[in-house]
Structure prediction request, 135 residues.
Amino acid sequence: CEVLLGQLREHKLASVTIVRPGLIGAHSVTGDGNVRDWLSWMVRAAQTLKLAPTSEALKSVFLRLVPVDYVAQTVAILSLSREVPIIGTPKECSSDVFFAYHLVNSDDAKSYQEFFNCLKRVCPNLKETVKSVMI
Prediction:
């Protein structure tokens, strides 16, 4: 797909900007989020089963959620802008360059273990599973 977009850009048939969001989380202010994504299902399953996974391996796997409002605002700014914001010097960019934005959260990473510990504080009836989780 990106090869086709590159060809359109080379022939000056389209302006191409690619946005690659990371794992999209809930709204940073309201907390509203997608109730049908895998993380919501995992939380709901933990609440229903009254079990939370426990494992040493979970301490080294991190959730880096990007708030949905940040993703929406960034996409809106990029799509409405006549000039694509360029990071770097103009001489590094030519007409056949893709503008690709990777929207990730590198500041607020939480391990799955921290995530489930927070969930257990909110839902005190959760118990840790006896078996470790394979990742």
Q: What stands out?
A: The helical segments are 2-10, 38-49, 68-80, 112-122. The CA atoms of residues 60 and 87 lie 31 Å apart. The beta strands are 17-21, 23-25, 51-52, 62-63, 65-67, 99-103, 110-111, 127-128. Residues 68-80 form the longest helix (13 residues).
